[in-house]
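Please fill in the sequence for the structure shown.

STRUCTURE ENCODING:
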């Protein structure tokens, strides 16, 4: 039953707004895939909230965009949802800034809905600003302890979850 409901939700919220103008090619398209895991009871609210990203697009002068999602896996406690967002940036002045603002708004909506920062791709440099909020100060301390023991020279994933200052402080103590 739940799978049918999710399929209906995903099909019904598909928003396709002329992703690419008929006169233009895909050469001016930016896209992002955000994958998360979320409790079943919160999925519909999140999907509705994220599909309102069309207002963010219009406010930035983005006229040709696509927002869609799909449920890829279900677990006892929730489901994995992939959100896809793409827009034609040919008509806007600073597409990277617009992209970053829209992605940040989407991630904030995901976190406010109780979704995860990532499903299985990790955190990395792009999502590190939300890390402490997601795992608490104790989680950050645990990360630092593991990192200092397993990677004392700070070779792997350098600065993915820590700033340059914090990374330097960590390696100077070793």
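FILLED IN BY: designer on duty
SEQUENCE:
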């Amino acid at each position: 039953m739940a799978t049918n409901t999710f399929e209906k939700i995903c099909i019904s919220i598909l928003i396709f707004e002329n992703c690419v103008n008929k006169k233009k090619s895909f050469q001016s398209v930016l896209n992002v895939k955000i994958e998360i895991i979320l409790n079943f009871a919160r999925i519909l609210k999140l999907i509705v909230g994220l599909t309102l990203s069309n207002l963010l697009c219009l406010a930035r002068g983005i006229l040709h965009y696509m927002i869609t999602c799909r449920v890829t896996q279900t677990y006892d406690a929730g489901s994995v949802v992939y959100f896809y967002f793409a827009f034609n940036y040919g008509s806007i002045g600073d597409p990277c800034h617009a992209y970053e603002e829209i992605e940040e708004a989407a991630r904030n909506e995901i976190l406010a809905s109780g979704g995860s920062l990532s499903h299985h791709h990790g955190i990395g440099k792009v999502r590190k600003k939300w890390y402490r909020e997601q795992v608490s100060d104790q989680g950050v301390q645990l990360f630092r302890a593991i990192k200092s023991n397993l990677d004392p020279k700070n070779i792997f994933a350098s600065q993915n979850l820590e700033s340059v200052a914090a990374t330097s402080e960590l390696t100077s103590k070793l």
